[in-house]
Amino acid sequence: MDREKTKRCRRCIACGLQETKGALRRFVRRADGTVAFDPMGRAPGRGAYVCSEECYQAARKGRKLERALRTKLTDEDYDRLAGEMSRATDDRPSENEE
Ligand SMILES: [Zn+2]
Question: What is the domain range of residue 38?
Fold first, then answer.
């Protein structure tokens, strides 16, 4: 309820850590009801944040992501989102794969 003038902090849905938006990973439920990882944190739609992949797994276990986004997610959805997240956050040039 309180809108402070400081940078808007978001809360990790798994551990409750508050961070500025840029430090968290965002997932968004789009208008069509699909859920996607949102690497830029700017996609329109209802968003939910986690601070780490560990918290993503915790959110998966506790079905917190679904509750935060008010939607249903299947195991396939969770796997897909985890893949999108790790691809987007792993920006180290990996050794050449064929
Ligand atoms: Zn967390």
Answer: 9-89
Please tell me the total count of domains within the chain: 1
CATH number at residue 20: 3.30.1230.10
Per-residue model confidence as pLDDT tens digits over 32-79: 999 999 999 999 999 999 999 999 999 999 999 999 999 999 999 999
Task: Report if residue 2 sits inside a domain.
Answer: no
CA 96 to ligand 1 centroid distance, Å: 32
26 alpha carbon to ligand 1 midpoint, in Å? 12
DSSP assignment of 4-63: -SSPPEEEBTTT--EEEGGGSEEEEE-TTS-EEEETTS--SSEEEEESSHHHHHHHHHTT
